[in-house]
Amino acid sequence: MNKMRSGFNLLAAFVVCILCGSLAQAQATRTWVSGVGDDANPCSRTAPCKTYAGAISKTAAGGEISTLDPGGFGAVTITKSITISGDGTLAGILAAGTNGIIINAAATDVVIIRSLSIHGAGTGLNGIRFLAGKLLVVQNCTISGFTQKGIDVNKTASGDLAVTNTSITGLSNGVAGNEGIVLSTSAGALRAVLNNVRLQGLATGLDMLSGVATISDSVVSHNSNFGIIAQGGSIANVENCVVASNGTGISAATATTSTVRLSNTSILNNTTGIVATGVVASFGNNKNAGNATPGAPNQNLTQQ
Length: 304
Prior knowledge:
Elements: H1 2-26, E1 28-33, H2 52-56, E2 59-67, E3 71-72, E4 76-78, E5 82-85, E6 91-94, E7 101-104, E8 110-114, E9 117-132, E10 135-139, E11 142-155, E12 159-169, E13 179-185, E14 190-200, E15 204-208, E16 212-216, E17 219-221, E18 226-230, E19 235-239, E20 242-244, E21 248-252, E22 259-263, E23 266-268, E24 272-276, E25 279-282, E26 287-289, E27 299-300
Parallel strand pairs: 1-2, 2-5, 3-6, 4-7, 5-8, 6-9, 7-9, 8-10, 9-11, 10-12, 11-12, 11-13, 12-14, 13-15, 14-16, 14-17, 15-18, 16-19, 17-20, 18-21, 19-22, 20-23, 21-24, 22-25, 23-26, 25-27
């Protein structure tokens, strides 16, 4: 009896190993989703899946989920290196009452989100939450209709964020706490590069709780509280931007430890232009006009 049981256990273990190997081999480098797909499909070009969540388990680490045609493809949690691409079509995530995309990956993982419309329908929580991973790249996206944050970087270790050609807009009623991009980590170095970004119609456009960010060639406007605020020892480098029609345009909010550096930036028609509780440093080539309370930089920098 014991020999029979032992043989049965060995056979079961062998079958499990075969199944595991088959599942691993089933993961493709590129998978596909379609508005008329089915998550029971293998997510191939001719038999696409219906949702990003359905496709991600069938996509190998470092692979790409591509979008065949217009559709809403559902909220998704990402735990490995992957690219989700909506290039060439109208690819959307509707995330009413929840988060659009959560990234909770390994410390070495790179996640790319490209050409997506991520919408919270007025009740969604956060458009993208970056909790763990090495690098998050957001390209050519629109994020809107969320009650908390458009992109929430809330890490416990080092990491990088790169956002290009992306628009984040708030709710029509300007919900308190509705922020565009929030940067925070409890440990390690957090770095962000934002280029050609629109942060508009929010409570706060860019809220830096920690880390170093460079924002360039961007518009930060019509935000009821702050356009750009640096807190808690964070550093914001603001270059060739328009910061207009906000409650406060630029704020270094934490005395001596937060820094905003300004270069070739126009600060226009805000209720308060500049608040320099910490360091607001200017290269001397900025415009500060039309603000009810202008404020001023408290440090001058020279161009090398």
